[in-house]
Amino acid sequence: MLMDRTGEDVSGCYYNRSVKFFYEESGKNISDHWRRRDYVIVSLGMLVCFIVILSNLLVMLAIFVNRRFHFPIYYLLGNLAAADLLSGISYLHLMFHTGPWTSKLSKNQWFVRQGLIDTSLTASVVNLLAIAVERHQTIFTMQLHSKMTNRRVVMLIIGIWLVAILMGLVPTMGWHCVCDLENCSTMAPMYSRSYLVFWGLLNLLTFTVMLAVYMRIFLYVRHKSQRMSQHTSQVRHKETVVNLMKTVSMILGCFVICWTPGLVVLLLDGLGCDSCKVLRYEKYCLVLAECNSFVNPIIYSFRDKDMWRTFKSILCFPCRRDRGGESAARFTSMEQEPLKGQGTTLTELKNGASKSVLGSKDALDSSEN
């Protein structure tokens, strides 16, 4: 980044001016002191950020430890949790660089603050689009999980983050108003209005495409379910597919509800609507957008029983470990002792029994599907 420079300004550019200069020029004043309202907003914001970070870490850990979730759709949902995790970190970073602290930021630091939020939102949008495509591919063949290989899933996730990072860096790479002061945004005083229009329209277009895809899927599932026989395995399979679709659709719906007002306000600001008073609604839209990042773990908990059981298992693990520490240590030492008159250890017998149980469980799962 070359935003912070020393020496004389280039004609028409303001590289040597402070962040406060751009705020004053755009009409967005920075408070010189902390007000009671600022303390309340920052305190509540930090509390929400910690909840967002911890809840999405829990989702990612649940997907990692439970083998039932080792499928492409859950990997993408885990990546969505990672995007929400970055969102929580981005807003936490914002809480420590807002209010009167804003005037102390260098231009590079200001672009980092905004870029983190842009990257997390873009990652969420692109990830939701990838989930929509994956569901479209699997539902139209009436499968529960995609046949996509793990390598392709990893490459897709890497591609999602490359696009997100690129979109977060675009303003820093030149699409700003440091050399075009008249085109500066009001809500983001160093962002170009044209960039806000481009970014807002791109995200709204993506929302529209996803809604169209899910509408097509719902119509297909509804039509297909009416023609399916009443065979037990087919009914269970259909219910599983529909339940997963409902969960994903609720995630998409909450995302659109939480982010659309903010994108609309950004568009109005980008189009130069001076009578819209976008600064009046800015904080409310920001809070609504932030709330989306901890809604998804709640949806997982109520919609997916396996996920909820995994959450409880993870959260209760320290308690069980403390209560069973002594007996677990004793059992571990006993496992190493060979059985009298036999060459087999208790560990080997336990592993064999586990394999037998898993084998019968896999057979049951396959018969149900």
Automatic annotation (TrEMBL):
One of its GO terms (cellular component) is plasma membrane. InterPro entries: GPCR_Rhodpsn, GPCR_Rhodpsn_7TM, LPA_rcpt, LPA_rcpt_EDG2. The keyword Cell membrane applies. The chain crosses the membrane at residues 39-66, 73-96, 116-133, 153-176, 196-221, 241-268. It is found in: Cell membrane; Cell surface; Endosome. It holds the Pfam family 7tm_1. Coiled coil: none annotated. Keywords: Cell membrane, Disulfide bond, Endosome, G-protein coupled receptor, Glycoprotein, Membrane, Receptor, Transducer, Transmembrane, Transmembrane helix. It is a multi-pass membrane protein. One of its GO terms (molecular function) is lysophosphatidic acid receptor activity. Its main location: membrane. GO terms for biological process: angiogenesis; posterior lateral line development. The keyword Protease does not apply. Residues 55-300 form the G-protein coupled receptors family 1 profile domain. Belongs to the G-protein coupled receptor 1 family. This is Lysophosphatidic acid receptor 2b. It comes from Gadus morhua (Atlantic cod).
